[in-house]
Amino acid sequence: MTILVNGAGEPTPRILVAVPCGTSVDAYFAQDLALMFAYTTYVKPDMEVLSFFARGTYLPRARAALVNKAVEKNCTHILWLDTDMRFPKDTLLRLLSHGKHVVAANYSTRQAPIIPIAVDEEKRPIFESAELKEARSAPMGVMMTQIDVFLAMPKPYFAIGYAKAIDDYSPEDSFFCELARKHNYEIWIDGELSEQVRHVGTFEYEMGHARMTRDAAQPEES
Question: Into how many domains does the chain fold?
Answer without folding.
Answer: 1
